[in-house]
Here is the input.
Amino acid sequence: GSVSRWFMVQSILGAPLGLALAPFWGMWGLLIGWFVGCFISLITVAKDSRDVALHWPRFSVDSLHLLRMGFPMFVHSIGGLAMRSVDRIVILRFLGTESLGHYSVSVMGLTLLMYLPDSISYVLYPRMLRRYSQESHDPAAIRDLALRVIQVMAVVVPLLSGIGYLWARELVSIALPRFLPGVTAVRILCFGAVGLAVANLSALVLMTVGRRLWLVPAAAFSIVLGISLDVLALQLGHGITGVAVATLFTFATTGAMLLTLALLGTGVPAIRIPWLVTRMLIPLPLGIGLAWLCDRYMPWPTPPDTLLRVVRLVLGTVVFSSVYLTIASWFARGIGLQSLLTEFEIPVLSPLLRRLGWVSTTPRTGA
Here is the structure.
């Protein structure tokens, strides 16, 4: 509840105040509003936590232990933020604010698609920590759970990304017509959510099994790769579309790298890792190819009647989803989807599946 209040107070106060000050002070007005909202939220959460957390630093032997454990996680968090921001920084530096504005729509689409994997991450991490502790810190104890969740996300997120790809052009043309130059970047970056989701979940596995130091060089590599590819795309004259492709490749590469490290950290034999990584990431190019084919070869209405365009989108979504799920179901074999849905109480979805009898009414506990 306290954490929720932090976000609520920050958004209710920070955003309106920033918008109110922007006409007078421009960018600084936005930043001042954001800062005031965060500061008042900090006071609120400090008041809520006064009985369970120290408000003043107090050195102890545990401080060094917490620093040793937490610093790599902090570096990874900053690295992840930087990896998700370098494309915008490069565009601002080389192309200016107008191109950055067109590209910002793709960031909105990526953020929307990350809601599901981020929500799963919040639930998965404490469950893995609990199981890891209960099983005497044996990495193999969390391996099945972690791999099942990553594999499910690797199959589900490309489906959502493909639907976003098909609908992005029409939604932007209706809601944000001035941002149409950024539509192609939006559609490309929709699939960036796949690599990002796999990377984030794999990082949680490494944190759980005590391989936090592995995250530091991984974060540095991802940042350098992203900057290099983004700058190269602009130098070759591909604009924000090239940056989107470079960012998609960076996210996918980072996901594959962290997934490999997560498999090593949980004791998977090295000889099996290439096959497992390939199997989990094949749905990404599958989703990209099918979405492109459905959009390319689905007939356009002539003249471009609005109702017929909507029918085309719905039909394309049905065809894409049906073909994708038919093929991707092969990659989902052996996941234990029913037991996974039973273990994770997902709002709306879990009660619905339970009512239909697809999911057990008794949640799993322990290992």
Q: What stands out?
A: The chain has 16 helices and no strands. The mean pLDDT is 85. The first helix runs from residue 2 to 25.
